[in-house]
Amino acid sequence: MAHSVTLIPGDGIGPELTEATRRVLEATGVEFEWDVQHAGTDVMERNDGDPLPQHVLDAISETGVALKGPITTPVGGGFRSVNVGLRKALDLYGQVRPCKSYEGVRSRFDDVDLVIIRENTEDLYAGIEYEQGTEDADELIAWIESRGGKLRHGDAGISIKPLSVTGTRRIVQFAFDHARRNGRRKVTAVHKANIMKFTDGLYLRVAQQVAAENTDIEFDERIVDNMCMQLVQRPEEYDVLVCPNLYGDIVSDLCAGMIGGLGMAPGGNFGEKAAIFEPTHGSAPKYAGQNKVNPIAQMLSGVMMLRHLEEGDAAERVEGAIAEVIREGRSVTYDMKPTRDDPTAVGTSEVADAIIDKLGVRV
Ligand code: NAD
């Protein structure tokens, strides 16, 4: 039976990446019924200024699975991130970002195999913010000062960082479950509990409690700044990292840099009722419509989706075909060549053609 999957092409480079990925997934012989849905700036006008219409959320709830391209978020103003909005609205609290080296990728590191698990619904991404100079911000500052707090400067904007026992407990348990299901050996909790005692301090304490209930898997913890240094010095000592939202975002880009760049880093967002698969990278608007960027991160997100749909055999075949194309180094995009202006670099859709060829079919 065909799998019903919501397909959100996104904007910027999203549509060309999701199209290349759709072709590769279909070449496995697994059948899909794609329900194409649009979100982001392009649909705002048609939906009373809403970049994330309710019918898109309903569609994902219906299929339970989505393959999504990146969606642009205005910087410093404008609407809130549709990507974050989707994860929060569907309570997709667990983000999984595997960072694995493939032979043939140009990188300073050659044997990285890490999984970053990021909490998706809390932390500074909660969207509870007070703009500098507004009545609300001034009132909040007055309240803080009346309770003995002191701001260095009164003309501050304020973002609130909630980390809860419930949210921490479920993401750390999710990390242990992921480790167990995937035969991984260790979970490391990443925090800054030395400075933020009531948020990261809580996170660390709860992580330690959850670890005590999952003693079949090794556990340790690292302060986030030290974690970053250790990752570049001895990545082999780490396995699964479980992070609050913001550190998870930053650490996963750091790890993407270790495996050949953002074009190689896939991801999935999981909740009790739905999952959305999307790469770590964004919409890279300057490359939109040029058939230029690397589709592999999007395709590896598709591989994660195949595994989620229990199409393990097809997932292995696609990952194997991708690995072979990378190893050969011929049909790869500019970011995977020795120099960025290498004239032998191919385009996004030609990478898909080469992978489909390796799968042994022509479409
Ligand atoms: P970005 O990831 O879009 O691009 C940064 C740089 O990384 C690009 O200029 C390009 O050099 C490189 N890059 C990214 N993807 C690549 C690929 N597939 N192949 C080759 N090179 C690639 O980050 P940004 O410029 O900070 O963000 C652009 C927009 O994307 C912003 O609006 C941001 O909010 C949004 N964004 C969306 C998501 C998402 O949809 N989940 C994630 C991150 C950023």
Kindly describe this structure:
With 363 residues, the chain is α/β, with parallel strands linked by helices. The protein has helices spanning 14-26, 41-44, 54-63, 82-89, 135-146, 165-181, 200-212, 224-233, 245-258, 296-308, 312-328, 348-358, and strands spanning 3-8, 32-36, 65-68, 94-100, 113-119, 129-130, 158-159, 186-191, 218-223, 240-243, 268-270, 275-277. The strands form two sheets. It has a ten-stranded mixed beta sheet, sandwiched between helices. The protein has a two-stranded antiparallel sheet with strand order 6-7. Helix 8 runs parallel beside helix 9. The longest helix is centred in the middle third of the chain and has 17 residues, at 165-181. It is globular and about 70 Å long. The model has no long low-confidence stretch (mean pLDDT 95). The structure holds nicotinamide-adenine-dinucleotide.
SSE blueprint and pairings:
Elements: E1 3-8, H1 14-26, E2 32-36, H2 41-44, H3 54-63, E3 65-68, H4 82-89, E4 94-100, E5 113-119, E6 129-130, H5 135-146, E7 158-159, H6 165-181, E8 186-191, H7 200-212, E9 218-223, H8 224-233, E10 240-243, H9 245-258, E11 268-270, E12 275-277, H10 296-308, H11 312-328, H12 348-358
Parallel strand pairs: 1-2, 1-3, 3-12, 5-10, 8-9, 8-10
Antiparallel strand pairs: 4-5, 4-11, 6-7, 11-12
